[in-house]
Amino acid sequence: MDCIFCGIVQRAIPATVVAEDERIMAFPDIHPKAPVHIVVIPKQHIESIAHLEENHSDVIAAIIYAAKRIAAEKKLEGYKLVFNVGRLGGQSVDHLHLHLLGGWAKPGDGKKGFNVG
Ligand code: 5GP
Ligand code: ZN
């Protein structure tokens, strides 16, 4: 399978890992769309939110908690958590991922020209 994010999990593709446990990995987005832009992924290859099954509940919870912890570590006062789903939803990498976006200087900066994907 030719999946960029599986390649990062396997350390075949380099990334600066900012959080990792048995279920998840997080690293900065290569093309950041906010001052802080981290991608949180399951280590397991799940294509998208549209491909989620009941037994994936734990991994989805782990992704959201990881994003919450990273946001706290980076002292983000407010942030956005975004799942792009499918091509029409702006998804370009077919390995489920949560975008953590934040670090804008002032309230309102994040609303101006904001777009993911
Ligand atoms: P999507 O558009 O699928 O929601 O988000 C995929 C994200 O992955 C994009 O924002 C893109 O910049 C990022 N990305 C694609 N390839 C790489 C890579 O090799 N390394 C990292 N760190 N990010 C990547
Ligand atoms: Zn994958």
UniProtKB/TrEMBL annotation:
GO molecular function: catalytic activity
Active site positions: 97 (tele-amp-histidine intermediate)
Domain HIT: from-to ranges: 4-112
Matching Gene3D superfamilies: HIT-like
Entry-linked PROSITE patterns: HIT_1, HIT_2
Motif Histidine triad motif, chain ranges: 95-99
Annotated PANTHER family: HISTIDINE TRIAD HIT PROTEIN
Protein name: Histidine triad nucleotide-binding protein
